[in-house]
Amino acid sequence: MEDIEKKFPDTLKDVPVKMLKLVSGESIIAYVHDGNDKTVAIEEPMRLHIEEDQQLVFTPYLPFSEHALHHIDSHNVMLESDVSTDIKAYYMKILLDQIEGTETPSRPPAISTLKGTTTVH
Question: Which of the ends of the chain has fewer CB neighbours closer than 10 A, N or C?
Fold first, then answer.
């Protein structure tokens, strides 16, 4: 397993959880480490997708990987963005529940406030 430097932020706002939009069209949320210009180092990635009823769903992105740290070539990342504190808190809850073996629903409880008004074509 690769060596991951552990720095603990003071607040949830300071936790480097970001959303990445990949050139493949996938959106993932992950703990992003400082890296170099050629790769983006991510830990505990979750795939984000929107169901037909405009509900946001989180699923493990690399569920069978033996490593915690993954490197994505930066040319495969179209967009990197910060996420809201609510989404960040839910993402962290999913990870903590996995460690404790607690069942977490696939959707955030307050997801109805995130429903979109667009139509699916």
Answer: C
